[in-house]
Amino acid sequence: MDTVEIMLLFSSLNTHFKKFILTEEGKRMIETHKDKEKLLYLIIEKVPNMIEAHIQNMLQKTENFHKVIEDLEAYRTSLYSIYTTVARILFKENEEYIEALQQLEKTGYEVGLYFGEVKEMNRETFLQLTHSIRIHSFDYVCSLINVHLSKPEERSFLISRLFEILNARFNSCVNGFLSAKDKQIHYLHNQKLSIMGQMAAGMAHEIRNPLCSIKGFQQLMKRMVLNKTANTNNFLNYIDICINEITKIENLVYDFLLLARKGDSRKRSWEKVNINQIFQKIHALAACFALEKNVTLHLSLPSTTLFTYGISSYIEQIMLNIIKNSISALHPGGLLLINLYPSIDSKEAILTFVDNGIGIPENHINKIFEPFFTTKEDGTGLGLSICKRLVEEMRGSILIQSKEKEGTTVEIRLPLVPHVM
Question: What is the pTM of this model?
């Protein structure tokens, strides 16, 4: 802040000084108008130093502080507003002082809510941040008070006020932050309970159907034996049906347990998979979704056939899930580009899904692979989590880049089968 800005801010406070000097408490605190002018000027002049000391402290103590704050210049401006507000309040009369303190508590609580709900800052970083601001502002202002005020009662009065102001601001800020986190925890708890209920209902439904078939054929086979009408061919047919239904249940249970297991890949069922062929198959299946939503799908395949080593049903599930997500994000008339091509070194197959849909908010992009995280009313938050796990099972990687209101790009890389194989 330059000298002109400091003087403009100071001139706006002159009225408060003139009123304040008439009170007994004001006379006891600072003897002359000139002392107040000088002290406030010096405090405001030191504000940039307080801010810089705090930021340097946070950069040393907090990893990736730039990313946490995102915009350091906007953060400096915000801090400047806080510090100058504290300076104003420090020299107010009693009634104005009490009103200003109440307003400070209110805005502090709102700031805490913002950091908790919007910025979603973690608890440790937030507490460290508020502590650092308080410590550096208190140290700088106390130093100025001790140097420029000669009377002990004046120093004691101002330091007590400063301590009270900072406590009012930052205690309310912490209360707002903790309130936001409590709301989030309560919401997530209820959401997870709801999802668990949906999963349980879905599992019960999917398991009950094959169990009903198994039970029905078992009863039929028992009746045939009791009536002595059993036929070997019928028995074998019924047994095959029962085995197939049990296999369905096994596969279903495996898919649901997939998220909870690491490194539990079914390598025994891995095979050389034709990625081009799967792309064409899934593209045909997805065409009906695109038609229903009135959007366009464009498929681009390489001239050579690409093979990976894995499980074809995994790749089908991954592609279909991502295509459905992309289509749901498109407005009518939107476009989804689906591309497959080899990497420059021919060691990986690169699958990209590029849409011009609604995009993903920046504060959500780091959470999209978390189980149960969803922005859809009817979503479970498991789709992308499962996709990520399946891709990693096949020693691949998945990356999502997005910009709100512009679109999303999903890139999947899978290792290619060497030509010698």
Answer: 0.43
